[in-house]
């Protein structure tokens, strides 16, 4: 079975380009139709969701989960040749030509097993299934933007507790980020469906995502409007396999302990 390519989920696109037209392949990746809506990042949890840029000008999405810590995807920091590609900035409140705040990056932590397990082939980088659940990363900001923008809690229970929560919510989730077709505006898919929590910790779902959404949050939003991150967006299948495969994210129980250790390390400095 062919392994999923990083190119399927990694946004190798110029930083802060206005937009890119939707290709036929992009349209196929939507689940029947494009259900995304514009979400102005003025209120919680959206004001905590921002855009990451790397040294090679790759664009991904991330979320403030502590005053100076952003949660995102690991593959965002690997270039096409398999080299580590560090983040340079994180921008919040991006809306058209304006934004609320920007911070430079002090540190990026990507799972070592994930980096070591990537397979390099002539036509690109591949993420084998054995390391796909390790596709997460933590970013430390030079400026604690979470103090002004707010932070979003990450689900702290185990896999069984997450299944119980998803069942209680009828497996309804929300996803949002800065996609390739509109890099200057946040777009969200409300009320989309999670479809399975795999044994390896990956959560499959049917939220409409494109390149640029890598690292974006998968929320459960309760009756009071409080959001909790239950997963981070990882990948989508090629258009030819859309009817066979759902989108893929990494659930919080996989990375929660590592994230808390990263946050605690920041607090000691």
TrEMBL record:
A Pfam family of this chain: Trypsin
SUPFAM superfamilies: Trypsin-like serine proteases (SSF50494)
Keyword Translocase: no
Boundaries of every Peptidase S1 domain copy: 29-264
GO molecular function: hydrolase activity
N-terminal signal peptide: 1-19
Keyword tags: Hydrolase, Protease, Serine protease, Signal
Superkingdom of this protein's organism: Bacteria
PROSITE patterns named in the record: TRYPSIN_DOM, TRYPSIN_HIS, V8_SER
EC number: 3.4.21.-
Record's protein name: Trypsin-like serine protease
Lineage of the organism: Bacteria, Pseudomonadati, Pseudomonadota, Betaproteobacteria, Neisseriales
